[in-house]
Amino acid sequence: xxxxxxxxxxxxxxxxxxxxxxxxxxxxxxxxxxxxxxxxxxxxxxxxxxxxxxxxxxxxxxxxxxxxxxxxxxxxxxxxxxxxxxxxxxxxxxxxxxxxxxxxxxxxxxxxxxxxxxxxxxxxxxxxxxxxxxxxxxxxxxxxxxxxxxxxxxxxxxxxxxxxxxxxxxxxxxxxxxxxxxxxxxxxxxxxxxxxxxxxxxxxxxxxxxxxxxxxxxxxxxxxxxxxxxxxxxxxxxxxxxxxxxxxxxxxxxxxxxxxxxxxxxxxxxxxxxxxxxxxxxxxxxxxxxxxxxxxxxxxxxxxxxxxxxxxxxxxxxxxx
Amino acid sequence: xxxxxxxxxxxxxxxxxxxxxxxxxxxxxxxxxxxxxxxxxxxxxxxxxxxxxxxxxxxxxxxxxxxxxxxxxxxxxxxxxxxxxxxxxxxxxxxxxxxxxxxxxxxxxxxxxxxxxxxxxxxxxxxxxxxxxxxxxxxxxxxxxxxxxxxxxxxxxxxxxxxxxxxxxxxxxxxxxxxxxxxxxxxxxxxxxxxxxxxxxxxxxxxxxxxxxxxxxxxxxxxxxxxxxxxxxxxxxxxxxxxxxxxxxxxxxxxxxxxxxxxxxxxxxxxxxxxxxxxxxxxxxxxxxxxxxxxxxxxxxxxxxxxxxxxxxxxxxxxxxxxxxxxxxxxxxxxxxxxxxxxxxxxxxxxxxxxxxxxxxxxxxxxxxxxxxxxxxxxxxxxxxxxxxxxxxxxxxxxxxxxxxxxxxxxxxxxxxxxxxxxxxxxxxxxxxxxxxxxxxxxxxxxxxxxxxxxxxxxxxxxxxxxxxxxxxxxxxxxxxxxxxxxxxxxxxxxxxxxxxxxxxxxxxxxxxxxxxxxxxxxxxxxxxxxxxxxxxxxxxxxxxxxxxxxxxxxxxxxxxxxxxxxxxxxxxxxxxxxxxxxxxxxxxxxxxxxxxxxxxxxxxxxxxxxxxxxxxxxxxxxxxxxxxxxxxxxxxxxxxxxxxxxxxxxxxxxxxxxxxxxxxxxxxxxxxxxxxxxxxxxxxxxxxxxxxxxxxxxxxxxxxxxxxxxxxxxxxxxxxxxxxxxxxxxxxxxxxxxxxxxxxxxxxxxxxxxxxxxxxxxxxxxxxxxxxxxxxxxxxxxxxxxxxxxxxxxxxxxxxxxxxxxxxxxxxxxxxxxxxxxxxxxxxxxxxxxxxxxxxxxxxxxxxxx
Lengths: 321, 851
Fold this sequence. Notes:
A: alpha+beta, Immunoglobulin-like, 8 helices, B: Four Helix Bundle (Hemerythrin (Met), subunit A), 4 strands, EC 7.1.1.9 (chain B), iron (chain B), translocase (chain B), metal ion binding (chain B), membrane (chain B)
């Protein structure tokens, strides 16, 4: 069904493990990684001690005189040592929690979970900058994510950079992420949200701050659409604008992802397919083969020159001057 | 009436007389024999029901295991589209659901039903027909829920059914209804079994077995059954809210109408986390029972273990929020629940160290059960340590909903539950079948299971660290999860092979194999006193127990039991009889007659199952008809099988002990069953009260302005009528005691319209101000509380008339009035419920100044 591997291998070559918690790509992930190694070593020591004690107890000769020592063994091994250890861990955990939950960040990004994609809104200098399924972040700055959902519960997770936070209808949750390594990191929906939950991904591109500012400015600009673009005519005739917005045109649909700069994104279908002409054509005509249950209706009747024009038009919606 | 038994003053047993022994044995056999041929389905004795329960639970385990293997096949390779999205979502939902609700909890009840009476030296549980009813409910409900996958309509919202995915018809279909109604039905049977087991442990211990002499297994059963009683009802309350939203559009979880999706998560995990320990503790109980046997000495730290089990039970109700660490709760809540989650490691650790300490001071005989127990220890300790990790909030923010948690939970459940259970199967197989398993095959099974398990689940920790989220049916090669998933799949199949070897070993026909020796492991607990080959009555005579390990510490006990030297050695009246003792000191109170084989419970369970199944498809008229059938069968069962007036008030129980043959009020197990059931019922009600206050904390307009409040006058008049109805029942009880039969009947029947008028007053109070349950959560909550009262008044009305009829028929009379006393107890709880509802609807909004 999905020849996704072939298409995305070139794009992601060398990026295996882009979801790894231990990538050291974010300050928050780094704090948890530090905790993890200590926990892992501690667990290994405790497991070996407990199992070692059991094996020793099984093998040794009977010594009823040990009854008294056995009680001390229970008190120390079962009660005192675990209590001390978990208290220490608890305090450490709460200190880390406090450190990774700042009240404000260097920038704010609003992300709204949809079935099954991500609506992303930046606070631009001239108001909201709406995009979808790709999040760009400036290096070494703390981004405060304001997370919401209008349908079901999703969870926003970029494992390489930090922890996850649920997106719950009727509430706004927050999550701080401070990326400290440039690159394209994987983002996922972590809370089962029905149907195509597995295909609800996004790219997290960490950039140098200057490059980020340039990107945001380009993203904020309206699309450059020639009035006589044949692809835009198809877009308009097929009613795509009822669901999708292309800023700078009369396409104002609020339902699906904003397509103003769709051609500038690395992937389509919410982070799952490379943004190529073939994939775009297939997405339009055979949507549910690429993403079962997706809300977008397929347009199987589109073909030939009209389809080609539409695809060319959509891919032209990039940041190029 | 309570009889203190002084062992030294007990008259000596009559000299052995072979003819008498034979006659008694034949009378006992006649009373306890299971029904012949196909009529076996009407059996109710614990040895039948326990075995069926066990086999059925394992059948659901195999079913859920096959689903797991399908999951593993789907995930074996990247971009695999073998099963596809839709089926996969059903697979993992049903896998979790079936493992939790159809295997892990029922198997505890199955084992307990099978062995508890024998460990207690009793012949059966106090309500055998209730066990049978519970079993049939479980079977019908389980087949209904599991069968749905064959029609492609299985639940696909996850075993946790988070709203609004599960509540909004747009996102979920029939599967959600099947989950809600099918499982509510099964939860009823779980609670029935819990009630039975609590009463069994508290009231059916052998004379002399004071609480501190009770075997550890019974302590765990008591603790776990108590946990079920407090954990399942909040989920039932949640199920009720969710199904009302799904079926009738009531506004509980829809944010646009004042609902809150997080309420479901609270109700679900208030059940869901104790559930983990409800699964874990009974299996630890198995190890605590067999370890002393193989160590050949009593458990070190007996009281420590009991206190730790109780401690775990308490703590387990205070840490549900650790399933909700990523829902954006305030830091103070996170800190509190993180601490509680860490704290549970301590009592758990104490239990494990008690086991190791016991091994330290003894020489443990190697055996297949101990091999499984050792494997359990290795796996469970690992799972416990990752549990300490995920209880830390920052770590959980990474691990939550990733494969790390999948690995963690399988380490705790398979190490803490499945391996001990397998140890228990190998340990008690000879007790149940009186044949020996093939030890070599069992060892093979162990190593395949142990190796396969670790191969499957150890890499999953790393899969989680590599960022693989749960419940995804596909992934890409570039995600870097392919190799780890393939290894897990191979491991899963090795694990399944190991289980298959063990299953074949258990099911292998051994008709001609020799019987095992009696008490072949040389255990100290009473179940091994059973004769080989087995007898239908369980224990030949019910002994006086004054030690923790009677078979070790009371020499000559088994011979005395066999010769019928102890209590109730006969069934002179052809009835099935138990000795009921008091809760603390196990002094004999009376002889309890329990029901024999019947089809009534089967009919009752069938009709109730039909009600739930038909309601799923909104076939209300048919459901109502089967509801009437259920009431009919149940009344028939009660009428013919409970509170029978004995042929004489006392009987000789042997060794000079004369016991009453009838009990009422708090001396009777039936009264305790009502009390315990209603405690569970109040817990479900507390779930609704919790919901009410949850909305109050979450919404600014809850309760709303005065004009939208239910009419105070109607509420007050309704309460007055409901209290009057209750007082009429209480008065009927006293009047019947004084011999005024007609007045009692009149009051009982007369209270029904009074109560109905009270409910009508409440309904009017809500209706008059235009409260519409589909418009806002406050309206829905008001109607839900009124509905709750109504749902209780229906059975109450039926039972009022039933008892009046019993009085009329002279089965309930001034001397023998257990039915009326139980009904009055029910009435007390109803009155309390009415007062709390009134406080919530009328008083609380006033206090908040809404008026």
